[in-house]
Amino acid sequence: MVIVLSICWLTAPSVAHSDPYIIAVTPLGDAVYHWYYEGTSGGGDPGSITDTREWLPSANPNMAGYANNGPNSPYRAEFWSTLMEFNISGIGPGTITSARLNFYIVNNYAGPLGVQTGLRQVPQALSTQLATGNAANDQFTGWADISDYSYQQSYYYGWASADVTWFLQSDKAAGYNFSAYTMESSLGQLGFPNLTFASGEDSEYAPFLQVELTGSPPAVVPVPSSLLLMGSGLLGLAGWRRFRKG
């Protein structure tokens, strides 16, 4: 009598699973760009009295704002923006299905004409360098608009967020270790309208990415050897019983 054993492989149900990631801004990942100008009509002209441009380490709170006193003379303008970088190298394999950048607004002063601030993504493919996680050294400014926060003569505070799914997908697909974003203001006016929000120095309200990742179904799993041994034993016992009956 010949007993034939076949090795079977068990395949888990083809159901995708979702892995959430919470990624806080890196320790050196946020920095503030400050530009102050005083002169005749605009930045960089020969008649400038003061033209200061500087990157400052993370403050608390961070700021985005822009104001000028035009058409008064001498012309004065002041601009603040915040760069934020997040380490995405630890996001596992799979498809990013959702990503939101969350930040806590400490105060929003709209000024007499309102304020318009925008969250922008830094497309590193257009830059001369890649983000390193040290925002003050990287000194990026944003190009691609993600979301605008516009207010008219109002105050606002609390958590806010913007959908950055497409931008994070692009950065991950390109193999970047960091994803970079800026908060900037595009409306200059009297009264210095600005938006301030908690920085990475605030352990409770620091900016963070919330990412949902859908992975592949679990791999095919071989049947444990103990089950095979038990199966072969049962087959042998059945053959022995037939032999005795014959």
**Based on helices, strands and strand pairing, what is the structural class?**
mainly beta
**Fraction in beta strands:** 35-45%
The main sheet comes to: 12 strands, antiparallel
Ends apart, CA distance between termini: 13 Å
| Uncertain stretches of 5 or more adjacent residues | 1-17, 216-235
- Rg calculated over all Cα atoms: 29 Å
Shape: globular
Determine the mean pLDDT: 74
Order of helices and strands: EEEEEEEEHEEHEEEEH
CATH architectural type: Sandwich
Helix content: 10-25%
CATH class: Mainly Beta
Q: Might you state the CATH topology name?
A: Jelly Rolls
Question: How many β strands by DSSP?
Answer: 14
What is the number of domains? 1
Count of helical stretches: 3
Key traits:
disordered N terminus, mainly beta, Jelly Rolls, 42% strand, 246 residues, twelve-stranded antiparallel beta sheet, 14% helix
